[in-house]
Write a structure and sequence with these properties.
The complex is a heterodimer of chains A (375) and B (157). Chain A contains 13 helices and 10 strands. Chain A has helices at residues 51-55, 66-84, 103-120, 129-135, 137-140, 179-190, 196-204, 229-241, 246-278, 297-310, 319-322, 326-338, 355-362, and strands spanning 16-22, 29-36, 39-47, 93-99, 124-128, 147-152, 157-164, 167-173, 286-290, 313-315. Chain A has a 5-stranded mixed β-sheet with strand order 3-2-1-4-5, with helices on both faces. In chain A, strands 8-7-6-9-10 form a 5-stranded mixed β-sheet, with helices on both faces. Chain A folds into 2 domains: 16-137 and 321-351, Nucleotidyltransferase, domain 5; 142-316, Nucleotidyltransferase, domain 5. Chain A starts with 15 loop residues before the first strand and ends in a 13-residue tail after the last helix. The radius of gyration of chain A is 21 Å and the shape is globular. Chain B contains 4 helices and 7 strands. In chain B, helix 3 links the parallel strand 4 (80-84) and strand 5 (106-110). The chains are: A alpha/beta (375), B alpha/beta (157). The interface between A and B is medium-sized, with 35 and 29 residues.
Chain lengths: 375, 157
């Protein structure tokens, strides 16, 4: 079973051990990954979520400040190495998210990885956070290139055609709120608590999904861009106009969830048709949903059915690798490492860094045909 | 209860909110600060988008900065820092985000309430409120200079 792009610089049996650090948003996370013959294995990982502290706030206030990352980053790395049963000396390269994200947090992770790289004389690899997500399905199963990725999280909502390592094409994205943000804010408007995704989903189970007609922004227009800001406003309007009984809350939640599912399913259908018609997606290509919103069961069911209708195989990484994590950074770092791509120690953090640009800048062979897209 | 704004504009439809952003954009200069007050869904990000796209073109992506807290844009008058302080718990966090560095550039701030005393005192306050037939924007300059500019922009003397 082929699992990766061709490996040219390394002997095929040369196992590599990579440390990956993720600090670009709310999580401080790290993982140690062993890559052998293209097959990744996570030896140890830690996600230092401070979720319990945040629940009380009823909002979304995690580790915004760089200091919060800085406070825990060293101990997260230490604990990760311990769980993996390795020492710094065993690590072949140190990868860290270099953007996009909150600059302070990104810098903490990068500085940690750079310091470890410098002191051990091993390479440092700056990883695009979105590339981590894009490659994450391959952590748990050998999904072959090319595949279509729908990344739906608190901060992102986009379709990406993943043609190979460093070969990403963004096909469409939200023009305003990310879909996870829409869930969170809708939950807040309805007083359902945080995080919004599970809260809305729980209520939706007991609600009538056809109770309320909500707008489906951009669905009537061609293309793969999406818009969710108006939905939140519409929910707010509905909520203001009715008595918010338990049943009403369930009905609104169910209607909201159904609307999101319909938008994402219809856009996914168009994305599948696009990659089939205009890109090199033949046979039964993979369709992957990643990001925290991928945990929503109604959405999963709807997209699974769609994938089957359109002749795509459906994949969803385990939830721990859907949300921000160190494993995906270690994996993307490892893939870059074995193809000879390491970063200079003075690499700067990039708050904004679209994935297609990651292709262009760090992988100049993009589109040049030097590296096969399919293994 | 509420102090009268310098100018109140009725906003019918999303386009009106975008247009208001565009109007405010054309007079921006380095050191300006616009604070956007309003409930969830009131149109703060929409107005910001109108403002930024008026300077950089309609193709410019202006995502909601809720999760990233700040997005920066290079524009001709000065860089724009588009803040969303929805997730900010304490003004101390803002110092680490470079909030004070942004004061020499252009700041557009959603959920300015969360900035506490770090919020620049010289600013344009835009309050977006829901009304019976849509939304309304209440504009107040905290300086004579801003009040004059509002008069110029909206042709009231």
């Amino acid at each position: 079973m082929a699992t990766t792009a061709p490996i040219m610089e390394q002997a095929p049996d040369s196992a590599k051990i990579i440390l990956g650090i993720e600090t670009s948003c709310d999580e401080t996370a790290a993982a140690v990954l062993r890559l052998e013959n293209g097959v990744p294995e996570i030896l140890g990982e830690v996600i230092a979520s401070q979720f319990d502290d945040h629940k009380a706030y009823g909002g979304v206030v995690p580790e915004i400040a760089a200091r919060a990352h800085a406070d825990v980053c060293d101990s997260v790395v230490e604990e990760t190495l311990k769980r993996a049963g390795v020492t710094v000396a065993d690590i072949d390269a140190f990868a860290a998210t270099s953007g996009p994200g909150l600059i302070g947090g990104v810098m903490v992770g990068m500085m940690t990885a750079k310091a470890l790289a410098m002191s051990s004389g091993k390479p440092f690899i700056g990883v695009n956070h979105l590339e981590g997500h894009a490659l994450s399905p391959r952590l748990s199963e050998p999904v072959e290139f090319p595949y279509l990725l729908l990344l739906v999280s608190g901060g992102h909502c986009q379709f990406i055609a993943v043609e190979g390592l460093g070969q990403y094409r963004r096909l469409g994205s939200t023009i305003d709120d990310a879909v996870g943000e829409a869930f969170d804010k809708t939950a807040k408007v309805l007083g359902l608590g945080f995080p919004g995704g599970p809260a809305v989903e729980r209520r939706a189970k007991d609600g009538n999904p056809d109770a309320i007609k909500l707008p489906r922004p951009l669905l009537d227009r061609p293309g793969l861009d999406m818009s969710f800001a108006g939905l939140k406003t519409a929910v707010l309007r509905e909520a203001q106009q009715m008595e918010l009984t338990d049943q009403a809350l369930c009905d609104i939640a169910a209607s909201f969830q159904k609307t999101i599912c319909e938008i994402l399913t219809e856009k996914s259908r168009r994305a599948m048709q696009l990659v089939r018609e205009e890109m090199n997606f033949a046979g039964e290509p993979g369709f992957v949903i990643a990001g925290g919103v991928g945990a929503n069961q109604a959405l999963r069911t709807s997209l699974t059915e769609l994938a089957s209708e359109e002749g795509f195989s459906f994949h969803a990484p385990p939830l721990k690798w859907c949300t921000d994590n160190g494993a995906m950074i270690a994996y993307a770092g490892a893939m870059r490492f074995i193809s000879g791509q390491v970063s200079p120690l003075d690499l700067a953090a990039r708050p904004r860094w679209p994935l297609d640009e990651a292709s262009a800048e760090t992988n100049p062979v993009f589109g040049g045909g030097k590296r096969g897209a399919k293994a | 209860m509420r102090q009268d704004p310098d100018i109140e504009i009725s906003l019918v439809g999303e386009e009106a909110t975008i247009d208001l952003g565009a109007k405010l954009a054309l007079n921006l200069q380095a050191g300006d600060c616009i604070s956007l007050i309003g409930d969830l869904g009131a149109g703060k990000t929409t107005l910001s988008r109108g403002l930024i796209q008026a300077l950089l073109g309609a193709d410019t992506e202006v995502p909601s900065p809720t999760y990233t807290i700040v997005q920066t844009y290079e524009t001709a008058p000065a860089p724009i820092w588009h803040f969303d302080l929805y997730r900010i718990e304490s003004p101390h966090e803002l110092i680490e985000l470079g909030f004070e560095d942004a004061e020499d550039d252009i700041m557009v701030i959603e959920w300015p309430e969360n900035a506490g005393s770090l919020l620049p005192s010289q600013r344009l306050i835009v309050e977006l409120i829901f009304t019976d037939n849509g939304r309304s924007a209440r504009l107040t300059g905290t300086t004579p200079e801003w009040k004059q500019r509002l008069n110029d922009i909206f042709d009231r003397s």
